[in-house]
Design brief:
The complex is a heterodimer of chains A (86) and B (166).
Chain A lengths: L3 E5 L2 H6 L3 E4 L8 H8 L4 H6 L7 E4 L2 E3 L10 E5 L6
Parallel strand pairs in A: 1-5
Antiparallel strand pairs in A: 1-2, 3-4, 3-5
Chain B lengths: L1 E4 L5 H9 L7 E8 L3 E6 L5 E13 L3 H16 L2 E9 L1 E3 L4 E9 L2 H18 L2 E7 L2 E4 L4 H12 L7
Parallel strand pairs in B: 1-5
Antiparallel strand pairs in B: 2-7, 3-4, 4-6, 4-8, 5-7, 8-9
Helix pairs in contact in B: 2-3, 3-4
The chains are: A alpha+beta (86), B alpha+beta (166).
């Protein structure tokens, strides 16, 4: 069974109600985009946080990633809004 | 060098420590970013842009990725310009108006490289380093939205080839 860690930052953490969770997605999920669609089904908060993906950036193993990029068991996935440091 | 820390820093001390022993340096450029007390609060109910005073700011970051991205941004600057020294300090945690947030130092034999590399570092870190600002304003707390103008400022460096330093 595949296992991944998902991190949420800023308002994605507020809306999902969690900063980090360990998930076991179905084996057929192989892309980041597929995983995000599955994450939406976890709770109404997740669905709300991920409703407009133009407002969400992704990282896989601490590298910026796009919806079509692959994900696999053991990956650290992060979802966050566009960055506002500096 | 990069540092991600909760604590404040002293720009003069940081500058002296980095450049004191290198007499090949002809110019040092430093940028210090501060928490501004007036914030853009987005559109009001009437569609007008609003601004207001903030009481506090919290900076959240992604430990691990932050350091990785800052190190990569600094390495890119060192590749593009002949720098004698460089330093990025970025704070996180709870801050108040007037507090220092970020410090970027670039030193080189000649001023142009130091100036250009400094702007590059600030522009790139604003759009690539995983930090998020939350402002506690008179009207309530909100997450700061990314600005298109910051994206445009960062994009101009992607297009241009490495510049001469002389």
């Amino acid at each position: 069974m595949s296992e991944m860690k998902v991190l949420y930052f800023a308002w994605l953490r507020n809306k999902t109600g969690t900063g980090a969770e360990t998930i076991h997605p179905p084996a057929e999920i192989s892309t980041l985009g597929g995983l995000v669609e599955w994450l939406k089904t976890r709770s109404p908060g997740h669905a709300e946080a991920l409703a407009d993906l133009s407002m969400v950036s992704f990282a896989v193993n601490q590298e910026y990633a796009e919806a079509e990029d692959p994900v696999k068991s053991g990956d650290e996935i992060a979802l966050f809004p566009p960055v506002t440091g500096g | 060098m990069i540092r991600v820390q909760r604590e404040d820093f002293d720009p003069a001390e940081e500058t002296n420590a980095l450049v004191a022993d290198d007499h090949g340096i002809g110019g040092v450029v430093t940028f210090t970013g501060l928490v501004r007390e007036i914030a853009d609060l987005g559109n009001g109910p009437d569609g007008e842009r609003r601004s207001g005073r903030i009481n506090a700011m919290t900076l959240e970051h992604y430990p691990g990725m932050t350091e990785k991205m800052l190190a990569r941004i600094e390495a890119e600057a060192l590749e593009r310009w002949p720098l004698s020294a460089s330093l990025i300090i970025h704070r996180y945690g709870d801050l108040e108006p007037g507090d220092r947030i970020v410090f970027v130092l670039t030193a080189s034999a000649h001023r142009q490289a130091a100036y250009e590399a400094n702007m590059f570092l600030v522009d790139w870190l604003k759009t690539k380093a995983p930090f998020w600002k939350r402002e506690d304003a008179e009207t309530g707390a909100h997450w700061v939205e990314a600005r298109d103008s910051d994206e445009e400022a960062a994009a101009r460096w992607s297009a241009s080839p490495p510049k001469a330093a002389e």
